Each structure stands twice: as C-alpha cells, then as structure tokens.
Amino acid sequence: MKTEKIYLAGGCFWGAQKYFDCLTGVLTTRVGYANGRTENPTYEQVKYLHTGHAETVEVVFDPAVLSLTELLEQFYKVIDPTSVNRQGGDVGEQYRTGVYFPDPAQEPVIRVSLAALQGRCEKPLAIQCQPLAQFYPAEEYHQKYLEKNPGGYCHIGPAMFLAAKSYVPEKK
Predict the structure, then answer these.
(1) Which domain holds residue 51?
(2) Which tens digit of pLDDT belongs to each residue from 127-158?
(3) What is the secondary structure of 103-130 as a DSSP string?
(4) Is residue 160, in this structure, part of any structural domain at all?
(5) Are 15 and 22 spatial neighbours (Cβ–Cβ below 8 Å)?
(6) Active-site residue, 121 included
(7) What predicted TM-score, i.e. pTM, was given to this entire model?
(8) Residue 171 lies in a domain
(9) Is the Cβ–Cβ distance between 15 and 78 less than 8 Å?
(10) In whole angstroms, how large is the CA radius of gyration of the chain?
(11) Do residues 155 and 95 make contact, with C-beta atoms less than 8 angstroms apart?
C-alpha cells in the first residue's frame, strides 16, 4: 500500500489529532511541533519562549482511499481559515494554521485547494502553505491526549468528531 504524509497545523493539536483519527483513510497520526526556529523544543518552550513552531499533526493517509484534496477539505471544516495565530480560545503563533508538505509534488494540489477555499471566504486566508522544514514529535502525554483525557479541552466540538467518523471518501 502506498501512503502519503502531510503536516496540518490547526490550532491546539489535541482536537485536530482526534478529528483526523476519525477519518476513513487516515492510517496514523502524531502530534508535534513544525517549522520553528529551534531544535527539539518542549511544549513549554513552544508555549512561552516564542520558538516559532506550530502545533501540528503528522497525518499518514492512504491516497487510494482519501485523497489529499479530500483530506484538506475535511481539515478546513475544523479551523477558521481566516484567523491569524488563533483557533478557538487558543491564541499565539503556535496556534497558527498551516499545511506543511514533505513532498514538493503535493504543493500544486494544496495551492489549488487553498484557491478554492479562498473563493468561499470573504476575508483573506491565514493558512500557511510551506515545505516542511522540520517536525519534532511532542511529548508522550500529548499523543492521543483526548483519548487519555476524554473531558479535556478542545476547540473542535464533539459533533465534528461524529461527522468525521461518518464521512465517506469518494470512490476512486
């Protein structure tokens, strides 16, 4: 099976990870810190020392089941694509939105998707589209956080998790 990876920053990574885990075609996820200015940052460094990293979810998916375009459309449903450095109650550079691609062949697909999204938005998009510079996995207690802490904070509402579980990708 051929798989692809994409790195999606959508505010607090706890809820984003749970959301992506619900989607058919997503094989694995891992939360971490992407595209910052320091090596191997800790959560405290990212939160308080302005390292430039974004809380990001590494998404490994099966493109034969869920295309990158479909995955991005699902991502847009759980973010405010026009909000700068903020999602829900979380504010700061680490909560910015972004699509970070490890494979340059993904960039044209992402750019077309973002252009379509911009056509549906009245304000300019705030979603970064950049090559993945680096990704450092977050501490273990952040991995699958909402599975370990079902009542934990999340800017993504429970209805969105249910919607993700019932989403059926288009047949290829």
Answers:
(1) 4-166
(2) 999 999 999 999 999 999 999 998 888 889 89
(3) SGGGHHHHHHHHHHHHHH-SSPP--EEE
(4) yes
(5) no
(6) no
(7) 0.97
(8) no
(9) yes
(10) 15
(11) no
